[in-house]
Amino acid sequence: MPATEYPGSFLGRISIRRNQVIAMDGNHEQELEDLELFQKHVSDRFTELLSPPDDAPVEAPLSIPWLRKLLDVFLCCEAEFKAILLMGRDPSQISKPPLDRLIPELLDRAVKALDVCNAVTNGVDSVRHCQRLAEIAVSALNQKPIGDGQARRARKALNSLMSAMNLDEKEGGSTKTTERSWSFGRRGGNKDRAPGQFRPLSWQVATNWSAAKQIQAMTTNLVAPRGGEASGLASPVYIMSVVMVFVMWALVAAIPCQERSGLATHFPVPKQLSWAHSMIGLQEKIGDEWKKKEKKGMAGLLEEMQKMEKLGQSLIEFTDSFQFPGETEKLEEAAAQVAELAETCRRMEEGLVPLQMQIREVFHRIVRSRTEFLDVLDQGGKSSAPLV
Amino acid sequence: MEKNHQPEVSSSFKKRDEEEKSSGADIVLPATESPECSNEEKPVAAEVTEVEIEKPEEMKTGETEIELIEKPEEKENEGGGEEGEATLPPEIDYNLETASEDVERFLSSLSTPKEEGEVGLEIPEFLEKYLDLVEEKISKHEPVETKVKGCLLPEDDASFLKAVNQISKLYKNLSAGFKLDSNKGPLINRIGKIQQRAMSHLEDEFRSLLEDPKLGEPEGEQAGADHCPLPGNDQSAESNEESNFPGYSHEVLGYLTKIAKEMISGGYESECCEVFLMTRRNIIEETLNKLGFEKLSIDEVQKMQWEALEREIPTWIKAFKQCANVYFSGERKLAETIFSNHPSLSDSLFSNLTRGVVIQLLNFAEAVAISKRSTEKLFKFLDMYETLRDNLPAIDSLYPEECAKELRAETTTARCRIGEISICIFCDLENSIKSDTGKTPVPGGAVHPLTRYTMNYLKYACEYKATLEQVFKEHSKIERADSTSRPRDYEGDSQNYKNDEKNHSPFAGQLMRIMDLLDANLEAKSKLYKDVSLGSIFMMNNGRYMLQKIKGSAEIHEVMGDTWCRKRSSDLRNYHKSYQRETWMKLLGCLSLEGLNVNGKVVKPVLKERFKSFNAMFDEIHKTQSSWVVSDEQLQSELRVSISAVVIPAYRSFLGRFAGVLDPGRQTEKYIKFQPEDIETYIDELFDGNPVSMAKRKT
User: Fold this and answer.
1) Which ipTM score applies to this complex?
2) Domain spans of chain A?
3) Å from B282 to nearest chain A CA?
């Protein structure tokens, strides 16, 4: 829609935003200013995630603290977005083309994001399972000196840890078996499992649900507004959609999740959009990492899990060859790894519960906002428009 | 120190050199004899002697006196065989049982306080042998799969657990006393290894027992195993499946508890908890699955047809109730039983285990609450609302405070959302009434489908009256700062009934508002009839239908109140009057005396005209109105009676007065077509909904 077609009545509105009464002419300008500010904020926030300012602690991308920052960014963007779109606005404005199409599309993405939140919440549960197994290994290997019994104990826990982590491999594999290792309700399956192995937790969202497909579905119709639309409200809707898809995509990449094959496929964000630069940078970084690891099969790109996997593997080697009293050199090397593993566990212990709660907060926020948008669409008299 | 524990150490297996060092030559005797006596009697005798000899000496130290006295009985027979030299052949007779007793004594000696400055402790010779025996025992036990699970516990298990207990103690005590890198290192390492092996085995056994509850399976299949609920579980009324949750027999439960105790005291608490957590979590999932509760993604729920989603709701309700009242409390008791000495452990295990399940259940409610709303969903939503409301206390009571707080908040959020959406749905009824603006009148003035739909909907809604009242009170308050949408002032909407005390609740206000809207809508619809009388009949039919519905349901009657009903009845009377006026007063006009008498004489042509027009008019009325519909029998008869009461006496008297004026015969026949009885018959044919022509009837 060319700029000249901007609805006349639109300019006639009096905005009560920020308690200001803006006269007819000022309104559109004010709005452009708001939109620019929103873009700038989004851009700044993601720049900070990509390369934090000097005075801020550097968090490895996809580490637990980084993910928590990411979720904060999401919540901030979302609040600002809602303020721009809803506050002091006449409902009829957003029930007009092109918003009458774009907003329902956004809300549809929001529903899919809710499922991702739940899937990731379940995923955090399985990360905690890994954490607890690693803690067993840490406490066994922290005995000084290490006896054969403790070494074996550690090895057993670490083996369970590795198999818990590698579940994703089967799940992500291209051959779909009817009996997935992580699905429940397979009593008979017990027999296949070697004794001493944990039966994996079921982290299903629903049968046949796929995180990768869901993310992909979120990108359907995700096209940058062009022409006159680019300067209007279509633009924040687009930005918010991209932010939402990116955040969900990053969560899925980091945390074990049901069915993620093909996640690396980038969603299309036009590179010329200045606000998206940092986000694109992050996306490429994470995407490359994903491609590297995907083939191996893994529990996710979560920094702490990667570290745990690496340390776990080398400690398994250590315990495999260990025989009391052990070689000093190897013992020292192991001790350093154990300390690092203990530190990783500590960070998980510290961060996982808050992360899980934050994911839940995002969930509730999305639900609430969706309801508010629907209300407004309803009032705008477009309630009969199909929302699915 | 040496003196202190010396008696136990020396009791049967002390090496000669040790003995010589400490308590003198008398003890050498059994040791030297032992190679020869491969039978059982002799060593025992020897031991008794030994003890007796030592006793006086020990009495002075006093510490181990009791054990010493008891020793002979404990010791019983075998076991003395290879005392002294571990290298000597007749070891066959020394078994785990006896060795275990020796270890027991050794352990208790370890736990006795040691004097300051005393160096280390002696490791008795028999220990290595004991460890061999324990390893042998573990090997025999290890293949868990071969054992029949869930059956009576073999005696064996008790002795196995005892061995594990001793190994743990040995490991704990010895590794505290000696450094692993001391010269006792290999021994301690060995014990640690055995302990790990034993624990690993216990872990497997714990898991395999846990994995196999006898839950809700047909009796026959589990022959032999008794289905016992947890102690204290009330199993009275519930069905078998529910009552025996979580479905472990007393024996299994006892064994699980013992295993947990050994694992925890041996320092393998984390393993034990993890197995418990993972296994039970999967079992809960399976249990929900068996109830028919299927995991659905929120996206799926949005796309489901209501008919399909509707079917999921009762299953969800059942699952939620079962969890809150049966499964979770069973789960809690299970954790408390198995980890009976560790309340904080059972607390955190239980919370960890079930918290996610609650969230998962709530997610379904969230999914349903954000699905596209439509009026038919209201009642299922209210069912869910009630479930969340009524089962919260049960859930709340199970959790430690922190977790309870979170789950309370989550449950309340879900309930609020369903509450809010229910209000919206209920208010949507307004819109569906407003938008019903069809221009085609219902044939015959019958009850309009909108009236039927609305009234039945409201009647049904009033069966949820208490809940709806609560929903309106609690959830219409939630004002969104940035939204100009609902709620509105419900009370202000029903000014007409404002004085009726009962109607001050927001729900009653909304109900009134809907009734007012329906009234207004019907009023407009009645104007669609060209015939004013038919419009009145339409209003009477619909008004009557509404009134009957309201009177037929105590709940809705209570909300609407007597005032409303009285007003409605009087409205109906007015429509009745207006109908009579429109239809029958005109007819009676034909029978009026006015203009018939001129100078005391009946004007015959006028009279003929009157009869003619009466006949034609009545004929017409009969023709039209017998096709009108009054399906309410009482209303129908009321109408007929009142019509008869107006028309028949007037006609009868008119006839009586003027029939004679007409010439009998042809003239009378031509003008007097109806006898009063005929009129009555025809009136009784009105409002039947089937047009009958009078001519047809006459033939």
Assistant:
1) 0.85
2) 63-84+109-369
3) 6
